[in-house]
Structure formats: structure tokens, C-alpha cells
Amino acid sequence: MPPSDDGPSLETLAARVAETPPADRRGPALELAKRRLETVLPSQSTALTDDTIDRLLPHLDDPDPAVRSAVLLVLRNAMYLQLQGTETALSEYPPEALADRLLERIDDEHWAVRQAVLVPRYLHPILAATFEDDADVDVDTDALSASASWLADRLFQRLVDPVPVIRKRTSALFFELEDASTVVLAHPDPDRAVTTLVETLTDPADTVFNRGDACEPRNAAIETLVELVAHRPGLILPHLETMLTHLTGDNGYLRFQIVKLSIGLLEQGEIGCEAIADDVIDALEHGCYPLRTAETMQLLVSVALTRPDVIDDVASTLRSELAANDSRRSYAQHAAAADALGRLVRESEQSFGSVEETVAERTGDQSLFDAGIDPLVPLAEDHPAFVADALTNGYEALREEDMYDGRFDKELLVSVADRNPAAAEPVLADLVDGANVHNVRRLLANVSEAHPTLVAEIVPDLLETVETTPPIPRTVCQVLATTAEIGVRIPDELVAAVTESVGPIGNTPAYNGNRRYWAVRALVTLSERNHDAVPERIEPFVEAYRDGQLDDVVDPLELPAAREAGWEPVADASER
Amino acid sequence: MGHRSYVAVELAEGADPDPVVDALAGDDTRLSGADRYDDVLTFSGMEGPVSTLDRLLTTVDDALERAVLVINHDGGRGEMIGRYYENGADGFGAVEELRTDFRWEPGAYFDYFAAKYGIHAAV
Lengths: 576, 123
What we know:
The complex is a heterodimer. Chain A is an all-alpha fold. Among the domains of chain A are: 1-117, no CATH class; 291-373, no CATH class; 493-576, no CATH class. Chain A has helices spanning 10-19, 26-38, 50-56, 65-84, 95-103, 111-117, 120-132, 148-159, 164-176, 181-186, 190-200, 217-231, 233-236, 240-244, 252-267, 274-285, 294-306, 311-323, 333-347, 354-362, 368-371, 376-380, 384-395, 410-419, 421-431, 438-450, 452-456, 459-465, 474-483, 492-502, 512-528, 539-546, 560-564. In chain A, helix 26 (438-450) runs parallel beside helix 29 (474-483). Chain A is flat, with a radius of gyration of 34 Å. Chain B has a six-stranded antiparallel beta sheet with strand order 2-3-1-4-5-6, sandwiched between helices. Chain B has three helices and six strands, in the order βαββαβββα. Chain B is globular, with a radius of gyration of 13 Å. The two termini of chain B are 19 Å apart.
């Protein structure tokens, strides 16, 4: 419902603010602000007219901070609507003029007023136009009185405001810019601005989860510093030592960004490896060096090549990393670790273990990371035990039920088995005692299609572990179907249970059609191998399978031949 | 997308902040915090709807002088609700509510409550 139906209009409320004596102005000003806040959309209310805006503007300097804040809430919204080019806006007021008046309050003596100026949604377009010449933003910077230098100075003051939320909002404004280092460069004293950023790295303000509204000042500060490296690395150099002390701090994101910044300085030739070596090694020894990306791992190698005493540590770190389970990352850290280790071995004069030597050989001609090759696959040939250990650790997570895909998926195990079955055998032998977990069974079933002989060896153990009362799980039937061809002996009772699993059973969950298909497939294979316990009534399925009428999207009980042979159809739709 | 909520609570004089942090940002809630400034603790997270936040505040109302919560409800075009609470003569309860029937800028509501009641914002 339009608000004009159940209350006075914005115009009326604004007029009241102007008419009320200063001592009583707070009430109507807050009423106006509330009305504006609850009716933000242009369709819900009209924008303010020029006259109303003119009437409200003087109250940005009202002696009462509550009035200043309230009026600011209303006028910043008017500026926003003007910037959006909202068709229903009644005002012709240039947004730049409004922006100037609002920005005058950015260092108001009352925190609530400063806070109200610094809302990213409203202020970002002004900053984008001022500092980045953003063509998408419809702000005429020539019409703004506030210069880039003036505004940069004020933003840096707010970055160290005593009120945390003001610092967080200011940080969000930095974050929203394409490249916030432009604010540093516009600052009347860029050195001082950089000092402020470095000090902000220790700002404890925390717990914000939406960077659009507010963000952690230390994160905005480090990102700005990293961006600055490309433009004015000289501004950073005097602070490098201070920043490097954070490499052993407990903030992982900060550690990573500082390494990134160091890499930038190295690439530009501003510093040499020795400038950061001690701090990098310190972080490594504390177990908190950020491996994260190919670049950070390569930096570690560059440092190690200048410091032979740490080569062993770096090699063993990278070796564990290439074998570790990084499935929860979107980035193939393990392949980057192999590339880095390979380079270390090739470029160092020291001798290494045989796994390391193989990594060096396999990464000499190509980057495994670029080629998308998991290092465990090329290693399987010469180091089956190392690979089997890594895989056993990696697939352990499958028992947790909560994950399946990632690095340790079906393809990896199949590719390793393709290279060298001896590297996969111990993995399967270890996994089978977890086969009561669906994800583990699913992996075994998938691998059994490519490597039935390998999986056949663990079938007796599998049958010890899984429940063998009907319905037999689809994945177990799948393993039986693929391995029966190898000649694994299946007990008669199990064949009976599989046969029973073809029929509709109780109120079992979805995918029953698929489960029935795999039960039938297992029986078909067993029948082809003349298993005594396969009953005659599965004959129609054997024929259907031979005729190509059965595949894993067909529910066997839906086949006409099944009906004729006396199999009960699935009565209830929920059973399908 | 889930609810997005922000809470600022002002501790009563001499109140112990630990139980408040436990109640609002413990293992049973989807809020994190607290960040502290003066006597105000701030939290944010995916907790909701507004009735749940209201109940969470009530469990520790003895320790609270005042509070503001702002939530953007999930679903459709959303809805933003802001509430200001005080521990008054009738006990702890909401004194004023703001409501916008779509998702919007939570800071805008905090700014209003800051102007009117002088309470710090969570975002």
C-alpha cells in the first residue's frame, strides 16, 4: 500500500522539520527519516522536490546531532535516487551538489552523523567517479567541490575512526573500489596514508560477514597495500619489515596477502630474496607459511635455493602437500606443490630421495598444474607404496559421509590403477572395512567397472562388512555384477537375497528401479556363469538383457516379459 | 541465500559479557561475534527469522540494557526488519520497529536507531 494512504507525505513531514523550533526539531526530523526508510522504493513514494531538498539542507548543520543524522538519512537517499536516474524522481537537484553537502559531514563531531555519511551503497558511486573515473557511474566530477585529495584525506581519517563500525564501513568502501591504491595516490601525503594502512593491519575490528556493507579494516588495508605495489612500490618498502612480522601471526589471510605483496616487490626487482628469507623461513618453521597458490610455493623454493639449510624442510613440506587432501579447495594445490618440488630438486645441488627425484623428472618438461595431472598418477609407476599411502589417507574422508568429489574421486583411483595396480590394491584393501558407508561402496562400485579384477579380490571382505539382508544395496549388486565375471564365488544365501531384492520391498527409499536393475544385472552375470542358486524365474531378464532391453534407466519390473513371468509389478508410485 | 542478521547489544552495568556471547554466538546459533566497543557487543550471521533472534535476546535480557537487531529475511524479494529494545519498567522488550518489504541496506536502520537512541551499529 502506498504510504501516502496511511500517513503524511514526505513533503509535509519535511515542512514540519523546517517549521519546528530547534529545541523540538528532533521529533519531526526522526519521523521524516523513519518514513523515508520504510518507503525507499520510488514506486512506494515520490522523491523529494527541489524545494523540499532546499528546505532540508540547512539542517545538515543543525545543532542537534540527531537532526543532522535524520536529515542526512533522507538526503543521502535523495542523492541515491538521483544517481540511479530514477524516472519518478521529481527533483532536478544535481546529485553532485547533494554529495558535496553530505560529504561536509564526513568528519562531524558526532559519531552517529559520521556513520550515516559512510554507507557504501550511497557513497561508492562518488568514490568510483572521483578515484577511478568509472564511466559506468553517472557522476560529473567537475561539478563536485570535494577534490580527490580532500576526500582521500577524509577517508583515511575515517579508517582510524574510534568507532569500529565506521572503520568497517570505510573499509568496505575501499574494498568496493576496483583498485583502492588510487585513494592512497590521491592523498595529500601518500607516505602518511601508507603508514595508516600498515597500522590498520593490527586493527582488531572483526566479525563482519558481508563485505558489501562493512568489512574488516585489516583486510581492506592489506589489499590496498598489495594493489599499491604495482603503482608505487617505493611507498611500501620502508614498511616491509613491519609487515613481514605478520607472517607468523594467526591471521592466515593476512599472511597470504603479505606473501603476495612480497612476490610483487620481488617481480619488480624492488627487493631480493634475502629481504624476506628470514621471515619466510620463520613462518615455515612455525607451520604457518601460506602455501595456497603456485606463486607462494615457488617463492618458498626461491628462498630455499638461497638457503641450503632449509632445503630439506621445504622439500618435505612440498612433498606432504602434493600428497595431502586439499579437496576442499577449488585450487589444485597438490599439482602446484609437485611443480615447485620438482624445480627445487632440479635447481639445487643437494641430493634428494627417490620420490623427489621422480617428481623432478616428471615435472621437467611440463607443469603438472597447467596440464591438470594429479602427481600421484605419474608417481604410481615407481613409487606404489608412497602413492598407496597418500590415497589411503585421502579416501579416508569418504567414511565421513559428507564428501565425495574433489581430488580423491573415482577417476584418481582408476588412473592410478591404470598406471600400476600395485598402488591401488592396498587402498581397496583398506577401504573395504568402511563399506557399510554408502560413499565408500559407491567408490568401490565405480572402480569395479574399470578394474573388476582388482575389486574381485576384496569381494569376500566386502560381503563380511555389508548387510546382506534384502534389499541389497545397489552398489553391492553393482560390484557383484562386475566381479562375478572374474569368478568370485558368491554364497547361495546371498544369491537368494539378491533375487529377493529384485521385487518391490517394503517402504524403501528412491532409486529402487536402479537398485532392481543392478540386482538383475548381478543375477544375469551369475546365471551366465551357471551359478546353481540363480532361480529360473530370472530367465526373462536374462533374455531382455541379451536383447538390449535392459539398461540402468529401465526398471526391470516394468518390462512386459517380467509381468508374463509372474513378477509382481510395483503397485505404489512411491515405490518407483 | 538465507537470512542475514546483525545484532548490537548494550550490556547492563556490571553485566558479564561471556554468557551473552555464549547465548548469541555459541554452537547453537548461526551468529558470530562478538566484536566489542564500549559496552556494545556486535554479532552477525545467518540466524533467523526475527522471532528466533527475539528469543535469543530474551534468554539473556537480564544482562542487557538495550539492543538493536536488523534482519534481512530470505525468500522472494525479502523483507528487512529492524527492532530497538530497552530494559524498561516492564522489563526487556521491543520499543520500536522498522520494516521495509524487500531486502535492503541494514546499515540504514542502524543509522536511524543511532540517531534516535545513540546506540552503536553492528554493520
